[in-house]
Design goal:
Layout (H helix, E strand, L loop, with lengths): L1 E4 L7 E2 L16 E7 L4 E3 L3 E10 L8 E6 L2 E7 L17 E9 L8 E2 L3 E6 L3 E7 L4 E2 L4 E9 L7 E6 L2 E7 L5 E6 L5 E9 L8 E2 L3 E6 L7 E7 L4 E2 L4 E9 L9 E6 L2 E7 L5 E6 L5 E9 L8 E2 L3 E6 L10 E5 L2 E4 L3 E10 L7 E6 L5 E5 L3 E2 L4 E9 L3 E2 L14 H11 L2 H6 L1 H17 L5 E2 L5 E11 L6 E11 L1
Parallel strand pairs: 2-5, 4-10, 12-19, 21-28, 30-39
Antiparallel strand pairs: 1-5, 3-5, 6-7, 6-8, 8-9, 8-10, 11-13, 13-16, 14-15, 14-17, 17-18, 17-19, 20-22, 22-25, 23-24, 23-26, 26-27, 26-28, 29-31, 31-35, 32-34, 32-38, 33-35, 36-37, 38-39
């Protein structure tokens, strides 16, 4: 009988004829070696393997010599075939996770030829692990030392390696596991508030990765310290590879008269992307053109100061698209700010077409989803290859005779004075007096239309309110590309 352990491969030789063995004849009497494994051939690191090996002569005559056991081409051990023995006698070479091809080779003697057993393949999988994390002090006061302890257990063996400790997605420390599978770290820098602490064990060759359940660590603020809110915004999302994107971090304090001060950082997943100081207004900006193609899970973290607690922003998903290749390759983005316009008047805003690396086409600008009875025009409707800027002018229409357009009050014979009265209701006192003259003229025009038969209603024009429309840019060619940018429009009286 042979006994094999993943770390200690133990074999016992038995001298008898094995059915099904394939003899190898050299000089002298033929011999055979047969190896059989009785336990599963797929196991986890730390589990045992049991089996047996037979070595026999073709005519049943006594054997002398040695038998050598191999894992692939690696010599595990050598023992005599004349005495029952184990291989190895004490400690073995050890089996790591992976595939192991086991064979036994008989050396032969003066009258018997040597032979090699059949090969037995054993697959060793990484052992599964489980983790937990605990705190030495919860809740803790701001500035107190807190020790976090992680415990990693393997299903079949003692885990080796190291663990990382995370506060949310931010790594706050790491430590090596001891012989009991435990690791600890201490910190005094946790900001006031609630922290989601986890411990992560990274996969090794012999052990699988695992993550602990989250521990909610509460750090209580010192008296007079107020809470903060951190926000993260992107100047272009989605963007394309090579395009410069500006990220702005804004930290606001709950208490009046307190402006957060100190360091803020931006993380891409769990990796630090940038760190900098807040300005006097409690904000900081960072620009980069080096984000890789793909989706980036960004967060901003404020560490707090003597008067304010730390806080972390909600995750911002920044998408970076690849630059197209070929003729007319690349893409572009459009920038245009919000607009405010008084009813019946016009407002302007600058529109920029920003090419990305490799983009070399002209762009035709346009507008879509405009509010009713408004229009947009561009100082230059076509932006040349290489990008540029122009002026977008948006006009609205005040109350007017319906003419050939459909009024809000379609079907009424004459609503000029009524519409005028409704418009007056929208106006604050000062503007109401300022527009009395214009409205009186509208009433007169409405009356004139009624008496002359030139019109039959009054159209109120563009309705006051807040809208969102799109500035679009379209390339020319066989496969045009369109990019749009949403613009907020506020129509006031």
């Amino acid at each position: 009988m042979i006994s094999m352990s993943i770390r200690s491969f133990t074999l016992k030789t038995i001298a008898f004829l094995s059915l099904g063995a394939v003899p190898v004849v050299a000089q002298g009497i033929a011999s055979t070696v047969q190896m059989t494994v009785t336990t599963p051939l797929t196991i986890s690191y730390g589990q045992n393997v049991d089996g047996y090996a037979n070595v026999a002569s073709g005519d049943g005559s006594p054997l002398t010599g040695t038998i050598t056991f191999y894992d692939g081409t690696t010599n595990i051990c050598m023992i005599s075939v004349t005495n029952a023995a184990t291989c190895p006698a004490t400690t073995g070479t050890g089996f790591v996770a992976g595939t192991h091809v086991l064979t036994a080779v008989y050396s032969g003697d003066a009258t018997h030829a040597g032979s090699t057993s059949n090969a037995v393949t054993v697959t060793v999988l990484p052992d599964t692990t489980t983790m937990s994390v605990s705190s030495s002090l919860n809740p803790a006061a701001f500035g107190q030392s807190v020790v976090f302890t992680a415990t990693v257990q393997g299903a079949h063996g003692t885990v080796a390696g190291s663990v990382e400790f995370l506060d949310g997605s931010t790594v706050i420390g790491s430590a090596a596991l001891n012989t009991s599978g435990m690791a600890a770290m201490s910190t005094t820098t946790l900001a006031a508030g609630t922290h989601s602490i986890t411990a992560v064990y990274g996969a090794t060759r012999n052990f699988a990765a695992s993550t602990s359940a989250a521990l909610s660590e509460v750090v209580q603020a010192a008296p007079g310290v107020v809470a903060t809110t951190t926000m993260l915004a992107s100047s272009a999302n989605p963007s394309v590879s090579g395009q410069s994107v500006t990220f702005t971090v804004t930290v606001a304090a709950a208490g009046q008269g307190k402006t957060p001060k100190g360091l803020v950082s931006i993380l891409d997943g769990g990796a630090a992307l940038w760190a900098g100081m807040l300005n006097a207004s409690g904000s900081a900006s960072f620009s980069t053109a080096s984000l890789g193609v793909g989706t980036h899970n960004l967060t901003a973290n404020y560490g707090g100061d003597a008067a304010t607690t730390g806080s972390t922003s909600a995750a911002l998903t920044q998408v970076v698209n690849a630059v197209q290749t070929g003729s007319g390759a690349g893409s572009f983005t459009i920038e245009a700010g919000p607009m405010t316009v008084t009813l019946g008047r016009m407002a302007s805003v600058t529109v920029k077409v920003i090419p990305t690396i490799g983009f070399n086409q002209a762009v035709q600008l346009g507008c879509s989803d405009l509010p009713s009875e408004s229009a947009c025009t561009f100082g230059a409707g076509m932006i040349r290859a290489g990008g540029g800027s122009t002026t977008l002018q948006l006009s609205t229409i005040g109350p007017h005779d319906c003419g050939s357009t459909t009024p809000y009050s379609a079907g009424l014979p004459f609503v000029g004075p009524t519409a005028t009265g409704l418009l007056m209701l929208f106006l604050p006192g000062k503007r109401r007096r300022a527009l009395k003259g214009m409205l009186a003229a509208l009433v007169a025009l409405g009356g004139l239309a009624a008496t002359t038969g030139c019109g039959n209603c009054t159209d109120l024009g563009t309705k006051p309110g807040t809208y969102t429309f799109n500035v679009t840019g379209t390339t020319r060619g066989a496969a045009p590309t369109m990019v749009s940018q949403k613009v907020t429009l506020k129509v006031t009286l």
